[in-house]
Amino acid sequence: IVLLGLAYLITVINFLVNIKKLPQTTNFSLGKWHWPVTLLSIVWLILLLAILTIPEEFHLAAFIALGIISFSAIQYPIHKFFIKKSW
After folding, report:
1. Is the separation of the CB atoms in 69 and 10 below 8 Å?
2. Best label site of 48, 62, 79, 85, fewest CB within 10 Å?
3. What is the pLDDT of residues 28-86, one digit of tens each?
4. Other CB atoms within 10 Å distance of the CB of residue 42
5. How crowded is the C-beta side of 43, counted as CA atoms within 13 Å?
6. For the chain, how far is it from start to end, CA to CA, in angstroms?
7. What's residue 54's pLDDT?
8. What are phi and psi of 61, to 5 degrees?
């Protein structure tokens, strides 16, 4: 759950940072509620991650998530260096 929450938090932040680069849509828009909903989702996800990692009973889950993220952060550049194919 920690990894899923973190992945969703990264997705929302990435969306917020790159909102200007996205094409305009005619299907659905939150209009003036876009910023409050996005900021509320970020606060909610930070609270979720805090609840899942701060209590001592859940420290193991946080360490496992940190290990997986660390392994991926190391493995990705190595993979990109040795495998030159473009997907």
Report:
1. no
2. 85
3. 888 889 899 999 999 999 999 888 888 888 888 888 888 998 998 898 888 888 876 65
4. 14
5. 6
6. 29
7. 86
8. -65, -40
